[in-house]
Design goal:
This protein has 374 residues and is an alpha/beta fold. The protein has helices at 10-14, 18-31, 38-51, 62-72, 89-97, 142-152, 205-214, 236-245, 249-267, 295-304, 339-347, 359-373; strands spanning 55-59, 80-84, 101-105, 127-131, 155-159, 180-184, 198-202, 288-291, 348-351. It is globular, with a radius of gyration of 21 Å.
């Protein structure tokens, strides 16, 4: 039995980093502050500098990065925020956490991203913000996005959780296209901490200042409280992990692109497979998501041959069965409301992709997929 081709292998990812990471962690334990230590500011400064942004505010996770930004903008009960029906649930969660109503718009079938042509019909006089999700690492087309937002007077909060280092068609980095960009550094992302972490990028001084208060229990300083707000700070140890990994991000993303290119060549014209289109700009290849009408059979075939795969995501947020004992959720949508998103959920499959994977492993995935389709 040969080794599995994994969708994620953290031990393999951390092996080569350990000579840098070990001493960096020791330095922190010996001399930095456990909460909001120097390492946090160091990462915030580096992430802001890489993006040419005035501010980066580190928070506990990507969901809070979205929710706290909405809150800092004064978005709350009675307000509506528009986002894509085809996304990780956290985008929708964040809108609900802010107290606003999530208004969903179907995906555009080719890009699998928010269909900008459908947004205008979803805007009402209560709509305050638009959250484009750069899903899988592909950036929502920035020029029509910005003109749409301007036309309707909406703030744009990018969900860039899957798009670290990706460029839009205007060659601006994901997270700098709208009024603010929210990132997750969940371990699975292109730049991942060893645990939860997130950040917000913005050029807006006022927003950054509010976020620094909102992430810290609403505290202006040690004893002055200006809001009843969550405790959601970027952890010092996670910042050390991120500082150690950041210099490698560009190389890792190029490796992902190389492997995506290998899939594109090896899987061209195979069965009914629909391969992902990179779009304009530079794709971050967080996930390599193909589509097939025989998705479940393909996954089972891969599994039996030691090839990992995933589905991102099998149940769209509007079709989950929410338990009322865990909180009231009424998105107000039914099956059939977002046919593209629903069809995607049934046909998508994510093939193994990560900078730590070898060429021969990708080739093994390709060969196994080809074998399945005969
Ligand atoms: C990961 C992710 C989030 C949430 O990030 P967490 O750090 O897990 O809270 C939000 N949106 C998208 C698209 C994501 O992939």
């Amino acid at each position: 039995m040969t080794d599995d081709v994994p969708t994620k292998d953290y031990a393999r990812q951390y092996g080569p980093l350990w000579p840098e990471l070990g001493p960096a962690l020791e330095r922190v334990f010996r001399g930095d502050a456990p909460v909001l230590g120097r390492a946090v500011r160091e990462f915030e400064d580096a992430w802001a500098a890489m993006h040419g942004s005035r501010h980066c505010v580190g928070v506990g996770n990507g969901t809070d990065a979205l929710a706290l930004t909405l809150r800092a903008w004064g978005v709350g009960p009675g307000d509506e925020v528009v986002t894509c029906a085809h996304t990780f649930v956290a985008t929708v969660t964040a809108i609900a956490m802010a107290g606003a109503r999530p208004v969903l718009v179907d995906a555009e079938p080719e890009s699998m991203l928010l269909d900008l042509h459908r947004v205008a019909a979803a805007v009402t006089d209560r709509t305050r913000a638009l959250i484009p999700v750069h899903l899988y690492g592909r950036v929502v087309d920035p020029v029509p996005l910005r003109s749409l937002a301007e036309r309707h007077g909406l703030r744009v909060l990018e969900d860039a959780a899957q798009a670290h280092g990706a460029l839009g068609a205007d060659l601006r980095l994901a997270g700098t296209i709208g009024d603010a960009g929210a990132f997750s550094f969940h371990p699975s992302k292109n730049l991942g901490a060893f645990g939860d972490a997130g950040a917000v990028l913005t050029d807006d001084d006022e927003l950054a200042e509010r976020l620094r208060v909102l992430r810290n229990l609403g505290k202006l300083d040690k004893y002055t409280v200006r809001a009843l707000s969550p405790n959601s700070k970027l952890d010092t140890l996670q910042a050390v992990v991120l500082n150690t990994k950041l210099p490698h991000l560009d190389r890792w993303n190029r490796r992902r692109a190389e492997l995506a290119g290998r899939y594109a060549v090896g899987l061209e014209g195979v069965g009914d497979l629909q391969l992902p289109e990179p779009g304009g700009g530079v794709h971050a290849w967080h996930l390599y998501v193909v589509r097939t009408g025989r998705r479940d059979a393909l996954r089972e075939f891969l599994r039996q041959r030691g090839v990992g795969s995933g589905i991102h995501y099998p149940i769209p947020p509007h079709l989950q069965s929410y338990d009322p004992r865990l909180g009231k959720v009424d998105l107000g949508y039914r099956a059939g409301d977002f046919p593209i998103a629903e069809r995607l959920a049934e046909t998508i499959v994510s093939l193994p992709l990560g900078h730590e994977l070898r060429d021969d492993e990708i080739d093994r995935v390709i060969d196994t997929v080809r074998e399945f389709f005969g």
